[in-house]
Write a structure and sequence with these properties.
six-stranded mixed sheet, alpha+beta, Alpha-Beta Plaits, 4 helices, 6 strands
Length: 146
């Protein structure tokens, strides 16, 4: 049984130029190792001070991962936007990417400052940023049938 989770939070770490050498790089490294170990697929992105993540996998592994993120002091205003059973995986890997430094905040980010976006809006934004280029990506963690 595959579940999907969608989360977002405001970053309490630097996300700008050189951030991959600091706390952001440590977040990515820990997330990637955890997702590989737990066979969670999906993507993590950052944009204009926000983290957004879509994950797919075993519901117990997803819950454990989300609880860890919710307790992580490098995040604030953590929100779980979705936790549902999925018909199939949309991702075969776990990837990470971010908005280009100096780019204008997406409409979703402007909205997030006053209204909580929907899970679908976050999933679409994550897919868009990942399609424009990933910083890192795992090898496939599951087969198409998993």
């Amino acid at each position: 049984m595959i579940f999907r989770a969608v989360m977002m939070s405001r970053a309490k770490v630097a996300l700008g130029f050189g951030a991959l050498n600091g706390e952001l790089g440590r977040i990515i490294s820990c997330s990637m190792m955890s997702c590989v170990d737990l066979r969670l697929t999906g993507a993590l992105i950052w944009d204009s001070g926000y983290f957004m993540q879509v994950l797919e996998g075993d519901p117990d592994h997803l819950r454990d991962f989300m609880e860890t993120v919710a307790r992580d002091g490098r995040h604030q205003d953590y929100r779980q936007l979705e936790f549902v059973q999925a018909m199939r995986r949309e991702y075969q890997t776990w990837g990470v990417g971010g908005a280009r430094t100096g780019s204008k905040p997406a409409a979703l980010i402007k909205k997030a400052k006053t209204i909580v976006p929907t899970a679908d809006e976050v999933r679409t934004h994550v897919r868009h940023l990942i399609s424009s280029g990933v910083v890192a990506e795992t090898p496939p963690l599951v087969t198409a049938a998993a």
